[in-house]
Amino acid sequence: MLNRIIVMGRLVRDPELRRTQNGILVASFSVACERDFKDASGGKVTDFIDIVAWRSTAEFVSKYFTKGRMAVIDGRLQLRDWTSRDGGKRRSAEILASSVSFGDSRPKNQAAPSAT
Known about the structure:
single chain; globular
């Protein structure tokens, strides 16, 4: 079986970095990806995709990516079922990032990533 997805889009907000109770880093962010086609009224259609990155990938994303930066995300699709506060059943989809790369050139005011 294969579950692999690659998306390229601009961050719609700064990544949110936090730690689990066990101290593992996790970063959450969303990217906007325009579809290759236009809708019936001739407008572009944009998908907003939730991304989750763990450990060193989470640290890298939170350090070097901000709202508006272009990112290329390679990962796998995960569907989660959950219950809302009002008791309704919900399902959400997100990408668990294996790697995140720059999709644009570095802004002039940002330092280059150091080799580690």
